[in-house]
Amino acid sequence: MDLKTGHKPLFERGSYALARVVAVAVLSVVLMTADHRGGHVDAVRSLLATLVYPLQYAVDLPIRGGKWVADNLSSRRTLMTENERLRRENFSAQSRLERYAELEAENRRLRELLDSAARVGVQVLIAERLAVDLDPYSRRIVLNKGIRDGVHVGQSLIDANGIMGQVVEAGPFSSSAVLITDPSHALPVQVRRSGLLGIAVGTGPLDRLELTHVPVNADVLVGDVLVTSGLGGRFPAGYPVGRVVSVERDSGRPFAQVTVESSANLERNREVLLVWSDQPSDRLAPREVPDVAEP
Amino acid sequence: MNESATRINWAIASSLIVAFVLSTLPMPSWAAVGRPAWVALVLMYWCIAMPGRVGVIVAWATGVLLDVMSGSLLGQHALGLAVLAFIVHQKHQWLRALPLWQQAISVFVLMFGYQVIVLWINGIRGFPVMASAYWAAPLVSTLLWPWVFFVLRDLRRKCVAD
After folding, report:
1. Contact (Cβ atoms closer than 8 angstroms) between residue B62 and residue B100
2. Taking a contact as any Cβ pair under 8 Å apart, which residues of chain B between 43 and 82 contact chain A?
3. What is the distance between the alpha carbons of residues A185 and A228, in angstroms, rounded to a whole number?
């Protein structure tokens, strides 16, 4: 090729490439802004999430297989001891539930007397989290239940010990949730002992939460249990969130630095519970848990 | 010719799928900071070897999918990968001619730039960023570059040859 034809296309290709990269950079910034402000690109996200779900399922498959093999190869004796233990646990849980039901009924009667709103009923669904590692700087998980199973955005996620997080994206077959330790997550809490209200914000990689804007002289002590306050209406009230592990009161600063350790097992649990609590109902919660939980 | 083009497209797509799987494979949490940027490595190879097929647009679309898969801000990895692909695309002839160890140094510089873009966006959102995050992943990626290079080169040659 000669100089004339060799030189010109090269220049044109270069300028096109620059135009292209600037265009996609602007598009990226627009997307990021829309995503950060929340809610504007959820449809795109859940559509694409459905597309990549098979990949995530494939990554999870060996772990699922390993669990299946372990379940099938465990000896009769192990199963029998486990069965016995579970039976005992179930028995004591059942008796506690009976007492709770009675208290619930009494509570309802008293509330009716006071003419206050009925307490919400609780409905749960067991979901499994997929063993996939996501962005290491945020705290998110993928669940194997989606819109098909009735999951919706904003639903809270708990385990046996407390609040884990909330669903932020629901696809047809899967959903993804942010944990309460995610740096973009905040939830309204209350100190169980003193009744102090606050906001617990996640800190990301540190796996801790922080109480923001707590006055230096506020009544918070190491070891205090935090529960959800139910303000904001996103999370059901009264579930444990965590325990205060350190309180630093520096009189030079306007607020105390309160660090909280979550009570839920955020890193290890495979099974999690999805909670429906937004529809108020007057039925008794523990006795009428609908049987949507899979065995 | 057409058949080999189809084969190359399949090779590119499947190597990207493998990279996606590798980048979400569960690892212990202490190792998470050093997870190599598999998708960026694979894209970089194809940008050097097949600049006519893989460029800024492919890199950006892959990045959007990576954002959805890893739960990061939509557009975060997309921006990083698009910029990375643009630079590699402009310099592909120069990168191709380098001996492997010099290539690896350039890979480190490029990976560092990519990581800085991704982490700065986290910083703008107010996420706490550890200093080790800046160099750990680019370093591991660079150490893996020769291996990725040879595996993908063999794959490409097999697709073109028969």
Report:
1. no
2. 55-57, 60, 63-65, 68-76, 78-79, 82
3. 14
Q: Can you give the pLDDT of all 295 residues of chain A as single tens digits?
A: 444 444 444 445 556 778 889 999 999 999 999 988 877 888 888 889 888 899 989 988 888 888 888 888 877 888 899 999 999 999 999 888 888 888 888 888 787 777 655 555 567 888 988 888 888 888 889 999 999 998 988 889 988 888 999 998 888 889 999 999 998 899 999 999 999 999 999 987 667 899 989 888 888 999 999 999 888 888 888 889 999 999 998 888 889 999 999 988 887 778 888 988 654 443 334 434 444 444 4
Contact of A259 with chain B, judged by CB distance below 8 Å, is answered with: no
Say if the Cβ atoms of A133 and B129 lie within 8 Å.
no
CB B157 within 8 A of CB B151: no
Euclidean distance between CA atoms A221 and A295, whole angstroms: 41
Q: Which residue in B33, B58, B25 sits closest to B43, CA to CA?
A: B58
In DSSP terms, A273 is beta-bridged to A126, A158
CATH number for the domain whose boundaries are A186-262? 2.40.10.350
Distance from CA of B128 to the nearest CA of A (A): 7
Nearest to B12 by CA among B60, B56, B62, B65: B62
Least CB–CB distance from A28: residue in B65, B79, B86: B79
Strands (E), A101-208: 123-128, 140-143, 156-159, 162-170, 175-179, 186-191, 197-202
Reading the block at residue A274, the tokens are 């999805």
> What is the DSSP pairing of strand A156-159 with strand A271-276?
antiparallel
Domain ranges of chain B: 2-20+34-161
**Closest in A30, A48, A205 to B65, CB measured:** A48
Residues of B in contact with A64 (CB under 8 A): none
ipTM above 0.90, yes or no: no
Q: B66: nearest CA in chain A?
A: A52
Domain ranges of chain A: 1-40, 186-262
